């Protein structure tokens, strides 16, 4: 259950950090009308993709909490495998990033799913 809450917190943190860290690119895009204002500017693209990843992590955390409450270990495995694939390639692409946290969480989810960790 702790791992599920950590995943949820990671998602919320992604959103908050993204909105604070990238406040200038977001403000510029909103002032220009928002629609189609992220594709031609590198800082805006980075701001968008970093921040939009937050709701996906948050959703995964919510699903993991649900799986824990329902004792659905198979769902834990599924979340773990998806998180592993995403974070594995993320760590390869950006080794000095916080994606290591997601990689470790993915292994914990897989282990919980198979009953190796209770």
Automatic annotation (TrEMBL):
Query: Which classification does the entry list for the species?
Result: Bacteria, Bacillati, Bacillota, Bacilli, Bacillales
**Pfam families reported for this sequence:** DUF6463
The answer to whether UniProt assigns keyword DNA-binding to this entry is no
Q: Which UniProt keywords apply?
A: Membrane, Transmembrane, Transmembrane helix
Write down the species. Answer: Paenibacillus sp. SYP-B3998
Q: What name is this protein filed under?
A: DUF1304 domain-containing protein
Please indicate which superkingdom the organism of origin belongs to.
Answer: Bacteria
Q: Which InterPro entries match?
A: DUF6463
Q: Has keyword Membrane? A: yes
Sequence intervals crossing the membrane = 6-26, 47-67, 73-92, 99-117
